[in-house]
Design goal:
The complex is a heterodimer. Chain A is an all-alpha fold. Chain A is built from twelve helices and no strands. Chain B has 13 helices and no strands. The chains are: A mainly alpha, B mainly alpha.
Chain lengths: 259, 294
């Protein structure tokens, strides 16, 4: 067992990380490959990056994705925090289980349900329907995260605020919001990433007019991939790792502050 | 004046309630109402009269498509089991064995691929596994094989890519539970003469059971309804629940049959989850019972 802990287990873990990262490294490497059709290395090129930045379709898709992501983050945070702060009634507390439904169902059931719902009321599919769907997904994460933080908060602070003559609104904006800020940022970032990444709901509820980034990538992969996708993945990878690094840096700073 | 004041009072009294309602409304309107609509549609017949019929279910149960549900269960169970088998050592290492200094870096590296687009993660495996992909290219160049190996467009590729994609979903909950286990408990067990293996079997596993359950849930549910991975790396022949649902709704636009199929597969999924849940609590119960009997 000592052998297992000091040799075999680390080997397994190293192998696991290798497995996790090999495709990513290869993608990055071959995004600089001159030969577009095979995996043979010919020569170094920036061409796919030029193509990527010149492509109108990708930028259009990215813009749509960003609009939808920002809107669903804003909506789900707003609705979520109102629910958490004001929903202290016994009755409202009992409805908390409703928010686990979107996590418990496979996403495809959600997507099919939304599609039937929109077509039943003949609501045209487009950006709005996507925002609705992504907000639904987001609420499933926002409400449990915020609820968890809100329960841990010292309720004495809020009572003190009321005692000192603050209205409910003032307490909400000046006491509760700042205290919940870390949880709000975490939840917001999570919803943002989930919305940018989401394919299934977008695939069902986007209609013909709106194309998001995942839908574009899917279409390109299905029709025979171009090396531009390699370049796109590299850019997205660099972008998201910067975001995660920045986020963890902020987080570390924040937790160290009280000392 | 009085009415205005009444309205104001009304709002003051119910304001808190009113602000909390949108969240509930959103869930009910866009999650549960659509679900009921799907349920209703599954009982409707083709011609759009109101009457309720079981014909969709009968058509569906007699069609060979029912077999697809079994296949989805098979692949979801396999993927979940393999994820647990491969993920547990990694989570154990991250939570208990590794030195604190390396832990944060390893965790960061674990979550990083998770933040990239999942289509890209899948695509990168096509790039490697394809007929003229990287592995075949290397093997052909070195002369180990004469013809490219068929590594893609089969059930093995689906299995492999699903395992790759869902592993972090298993590791994260396992890690967060294993990390909470106090080292003292493990040390106490060793002090009392238990071997490493006994400690692992009787202390670590039962204590991490809730993490195992969450992990199974997080992997089993989405992999049951998965249709992106099969449609990208699985070729045209391998239909799963997700692919068939999207086929019914988006290609042939047969909502009645599609809804019936969705409902039936949802029920099967629930039964499977309950069964897995029961299975997970089994070892724990057995140990407790042993204690009581002794």
């Amino acid at each position: 067992m000592r052998n297992f802990n000091s040799y075999i287990l680390p080997t397994i873990v190293i192998f696991f990380y290798f497995f996790l990262y090999i495709p990513i490294f290869i993608l990055i490497l071959f995004s600089f490959n001159d030969n577009p059709f095979t995996c043979t290395w010919t020569s170094f090129t920036w061409q796919w990056y030029y193509d990527l930045f010149a492509s109108v379709e990708i930028w259009h898709a990215l813009r749509n994705s960003l609009i939808i992501a920002v809107a669903s983050v804003a909506l789900s945070l707003m609705i979520g925090i109102n629910f958490i702060f004001f929903g202290t009634h016994q009755f409202v507390q009992r409805t908390l289980f409703l928010f686990y439904g979107s996590l418990a169902m496979p996403e495809i059931v959600l997507a099919v349900g939304l599609l039937s719902f929109f077509s039943f009321f003949s609501i045209p599919l487009g950006t709005t329907t996507l925002i609705v769907g992504h907000t639904l997904l987001g609420l499933g994460y926002v409400v449990p995260i915020l609820q968890g933080r809100f329960v841990e908060l010292d309720k004495g602070l809020m009572e003190a605020s009321y005692d000192l003559g603050a209205t409910q609104r003032q307490t909400f904006f000046y006491v509760v919001m700042p205290l919940l800020m870390p949880a709000l940022i975490t939840a917001g970032l999570l919803v943002f990433i989930i919305s940018l990444d989401d394919f299934i709901i977008s695939f069902f509820c986007s209609g013909a007019s709106v194309q998001t980034l995942p839908l574009y990538i899917f279409a390109v992969i299905r029709t025979g991939a171009s090396p531009m996708i390699n370049a796109l993945s590299t850019v997205m990878l660099v972008f998201s790792s910067c975001l995660v690094l920045l986020f963890s840096f902020l987080h570390v700073k924040k937790t160290r502050m009280p000392k | 004046m009085k009415i205005k004041k009444n309205i104001k009072n009304f709002f003051a009294e119910y304001a808190s309630f009113i602000f909390s309602v949108p969240a509930i409304l959103w869930q009910v309107l866009f999650l549960y109402a659509p679900f009921l609509l799907v349920l209703y549609t599954s009982f409707k017949s083709d011609d759009s009269n109101i009457s309720i019929t079981l014909s969709n279910y009968i058509t569906m149960l007699s069609s060979p498509y029912f077999y697809i549900i079994a296949r989805s269960i098979f692949i979801a169970t396999g993927v979940t089991f393999l994820c647990l088998l491969c993920g547990y050592p990694v989570a154990y290492f991250l939570a208990i064995t590794v030195h604190r200094r390396w832990k944060n870096y390893l965790l960061f590296l674990l979550t990083l691929p998770f933040w990239t687009n999942f289509l890209i993660q899948i695509y990168s495996w096509i790039f490697i596994l394809d007929y003229n992909g990287l592995i075949n290219m290397l093997l052909l160049k070195t002369g180990l094989i004469q013809n490219p190996l068929p590594m893609i467009n089969n059930i093995g590729a689906i299995f492999f890519v699903m395992l790759y994609y869902y592993l972090p979903f298993m590791i994260m909950p396992l890690y967060s539970i294993l990390e909470k286990i106090q080292q003292d408990v493990l040390e106490a067990s060793m002090d009392l003469g238990a071997t490493h293996w006994q400690t692992f079997k009787y202390i670590t596993i039962p204590l991490s059971m809730s993490g195992i359950k969450t992990g199974i849930f997080l992997v089993f549910v989405p992999s049951f309804g998965e249709f992106v991975i099969p449609s990208i790396v699985g070729g045209a022949h391998h239909m799963f629940v997700g692919s068939l649902v999207s086929h019914y709704f988006l290609v042939v636009q047969d909502k009645q049959l599609g809804s019936a199929f969705t409902i039936v597969s949802g029920l099967v999924l629930i039964i499977c989850i309950l069964f897995l849940h029961w299975l997970c609590s089994f070892p724990f119960r057995k140990i407790v019972r042993k204690r009581i009997v002794k």
